[in-house]
Amino acid sequence: MPLVAFTDLLSKVPKGLRLLGLDPGTKTIGLAISDGGFMVASPIGTIKRSKFTKDAKELAGICKEREVGGLIMGLPVNMDGTEGPRCQSVRQLAQNLIDKAGFTQPIAFWDERLSTSAVERFLVGEADMTRKRRADVVDKMAAAYILQGALDALANQSRAQESEPSPPT
């Protein structure tokens, strides 16, 4: 059950638990957490990547501490919609979390095209951050951007389902 279609994610997350957004990169994994109502994403930090078992253990600790019921992983789809080696790497990370680290939370993917560049533009233009400071926050901000996009899509999905007419009885 852990790998689920994005549209099925909310039905698999137990009530009262939150979603953890991940922006997996080659050097770090950006992290963001949702509120309990799945409305707002907040950046919480990064994991500096090392050995898989160490990274998975740190991630599992965060999931327990933050009461995480599901994960949304940013999927770096190419601009033309195809999946390249980076997508394969993210999918493999998710599979390893399930197979090797025993994660039982449902995991869904979210197309993260342009998330890092959107965050970089904001940090340079609006926040006027230095290059050093941007390097410290861009991964967790990208995770929040990814998670917020997913939360907004899930909210739209829920509204659409609620407004569908009931079948005649």
Please write out the topology.
Layout: H1 9-12, E1 18-24, E2 28-34, E3 41-48, H2 52-65, E4 68-75, H3 85-99, E5 107-111, H4 115-125, H5 131-163
Parallel strand pairs: 1-4, 4-5
Antiparallel strand pairs: 1-2, 2-3
Helix pairs in contact: 4-5
**Tally of helical segments:** 5
Unreliable segments of 5+ consecutive residues? none
Helix coverage percent:
40-55%
Largest sheet: 5 strands, mixed
Beta-strand level of the residues, as a percent range? 15-25%
CATH-assigned fold name: Nucleotidyltransferase, domain 5
> Rg, please?
16 Å
CATH 4th-level superfamily: YqgF/RNase H-like domain
- Number of strand segments: 5
Helix and strand element order: HEEEHEHEHH
Structural class: alpha/beta
Write up what this structure looks like.
- The protein has helices at residues 9-12, 52-65, 85-99, 115-125, 131-163; strands spanning 18-24, 28-34, 41-48, 68-75, 107-111.
- By secondary structure, the chain is an alpha/beta fold.
- The chain has one domain: YqgF/RNase H-like domain (Nucleotidyltransferase, domain 5), CATH 3.30.420.140.
- Strands 3-2-1-4-5 form a five-stranded mixed sheet, sandwiched between helices.
- The longest helix has 33 residues, at 131-163.
- It is globular and about 55 Å long.
- The two termini are 33 Å apart.
- It holds the Pfam family RuvX.
- It is an enzyme of class 3 (hydrolase).
- Belongs to the YqgF HJR family.
- One of its GO terms (molecular function) is nuclease activity.
